[in-house]
Amino acid sequence: MDEDYPRRRIALDLALTGLRSDEVRNVELRHFERLDGTEDKWRLTIPDGKTGTRSTPVARDLRERVKYLKSAARLRADEPIIDVSTRSLRDWIGEAREELAADLDDERWHDLGMHDLRRTWATDTFYSLAFEGVPIAEELTMAWGGWAMTDSGRETFRRNYLGPVPDHVTSRAMNHLKTF
To answer: pTM higher than 0.90, yes or no?
Structure first.
């Protein structure tokens, strides 16, 4: 394991939390805050996103790993955690996709890019919220992901980011049907 592994893992996890590459590169520890004063519910504020400032929920584990990396790297509070070029992010996802393709013996992984992690997050978040009966699943996913709340923003979200229903949602839905 190389010395950049913790940063690489956090960078990929931030992309799997709906962040764009430029946003991943600018995350600072001070951008995380607790939701409603709880210990395990966190949000990440992206102050300079493509569509302005937005907040998105993040896993406590991700926030903790960012905190530990900041401490281990002795970064100032206002220094980005993933202070690398966009090219480095592309290289990191390239290494990950090659490992996945080899480990899973599946050539489809060779096409994986950073933005695919954002698409995965959007699909999973939307369908998970919708399955739970959240009436504003689309609006929440769009707000958290930074899509403009316009007709064209909604069209972009639906056309370019929503993939097929994730297997875990299909499996949960099947549990509610008696015929399977």
So the answer is: no
